[in-house]
Automatic annotation (TrEMBL):
Name of the protein this chain belongs to: Longin domain-containing protein
Membrane topology recorded in Swiss-Prot or TrEMBL: Single-pass type IV membrane protein
Keywords, comma-separated and alphabetical: Coiled coil, Membrane, Protein transport, Transmembrane, Transmembrane helix, Transport
One of the GO biological process terms: endoplasmic reticulum to Golgi vesicle-mediated transport
PANTHER family documented for this protein: VESICLE-TRAFFICKING PROTEIN SEC22B
UniProt GO MF annotations: SNAP receptor activity
Transmembrane region(s): 184-204
Length: 207
């Protein structure tokens, strides 16, 4: 299943649209993955990730797939079992929708996720790709069986390690702190969720 999508500028790493939006504590894990998508976008912008399309393994559950075209990067988080060629077909559909617009304004945006109108476009296209067993998606899978061969695969741990090495050679403390944040954010999120659950139980007991 397609879980999360982020669209951003490949040349400076600014995310301009995404779906779904984080709304409550149950979406905390998606917040972590969104931060990782932003990290990947930044790595692309600084030239650390050169391929125009790539799959990035995150853990046993999820992986990222991204596609770059005309300075815009399309990133989606999918379950590891989700067909990769279907994920890239989804990204191609997003690309086609962007190309229908006057894209010059995308290069004038200065605030993250300010292209709110495109969030709804992502939601509508994503809906078509949730079920891999529909006739349309089965047709895509049968037509694009060889696409997997053209996509490079990397592990997020290796990308973070390369970033760490770059940070060590960089005198900027901010760069090093970003790497630490990526490493410890999952543990922090789990701790926060555990504290909320524990606090809720105490409240219930009091009543």
């Amino acid at each position: 299943m397609v879980k999360l999508t982020v669209v951003g500028r490949a040349y400076d790493g600014l995310p301009v649209a995404h779906f779904p939006r984080v709304k409550n504590e149950e979406d905390m894990s998606m917040l972590f993955y969104k931060q990782q998508a932003e990290f990947i976008l930044k790595e692309i912008s600084r030239g650390a990730l050169l391929p125009s399309k790539m799959s990035i393994n995150i853990d046993d559950l999820y992986c990222f797939n991204y596609l770059i075209e005309k300075g815009i990067c399309y990133i989606t988080l999918c379950e590891s079992s989700y067909p990769r060629n279907l994920a890239f077909h989804y990204l191609q559909d997003l690309l086609k929708e962007i190309e229908k617009l006057d894209t010059n304004f995308l290069h004038t945006l200065s605030k993250p996720y300010s292209f709110i109108k495109f969030d709804n476009v992502i939601a509508n296209i994503r809906r078509r790709y949730l079920d891999t067993r529909t006739q349309a998606n089965l047709s895509i899978l049968n037509t694009n069986r060889r696409q997997d061969l053209d996509v490079m695969t990397e592990d997020i741990s290796k990308i973070i390690e390369n970033k760490r090495r770059s940070a060590n050679s960089d005198s900027s403390p901010l760069c090093y702190l970003q790497v630490i944040a990526l490493k410890w954010t999952p543990i922090t999120l789990m701790s926060v969720v555990a504290m909320v659950v524990l606090w809720s139980r105490f409240i219930v007991k009091d009543y």
